[in-house]
Every structure is written in C-alpha cells, then in structure tokens.
Amino acid sequence: MSLLKVLFGSKPNTDKVQVVSREAYAQRIEKGKVQLVDVRTSREFNAGHIKGAKNLDFFNPSQFKKGVATLDKSKPVYLYCQSGNRSRKATNRLLTMGFNQIIDLAGGYNAWSR
Questions:
Q1: Catalytic pick among 19, 29, 81, 102
Q2: Among 20, 50, 59, 105, which is most buried by a count of CB atoms within 10 Å?
Q3: pLDDT tens across 40-56, in order?
Q4: DSSP 38
C-alpha cells in the first residue's frame, strides 16, 4: 500500500459513492427519514450539527463500528465531517462493510454552515 493511499485514503468507488454540493445534499435530506451520519467527534458535534444527524465518531473505532451496525445497508447513508477528509475515510470503511449507497457532503460541515 502506498504512503499516499495510507495518508489520504483511496479514491471512492464512484458507482457507490456520490460527493454532492451543499445544495444537493440539503435537497436530499430535507424529506427526512434518511440515515444521516456525522463522523466528527462528540465535541465537534455538540458545537453544531445538521438536524437529525447521528454522531458516530470516526476516531473512536468501537463506537463507530457499533453505530454503523445499526444502519440499514440497503438504504443510502448520508455522511459528513468537518471538511470532507474524515467522511472520505469513513466512506471507504463503509464500503468494506458492505454499504452500497453513500452520499458525502462536499466540504463537510464547513460548507453546510456557511
């Protein structure tokens, strides 16, 4: 495995992953009843998050894995982090766990809260 791949993660499988703009993300989640996951720390989450998001801290592997186990693999998962880096890594992990529809917020919460 290359050093760059370890540091930055691999490019997501584009037929299973969509990275969308704030506007497109908002349109998709506004109908509710989506699996909306914030992969930031609880401290970041408590400082502000998208309404209806479930906090699954990517840096806490046991909590992340336990929370992901409650998600429905047959439905899309909407992910975001602070800037897009952690959610990309979380996307790769979800793909290895059998998820097939992942929508990632481009620019993360930084883009959302502008």
A1: 81
A2: 105
A3: 999 999 999 999 999 99
A4: E
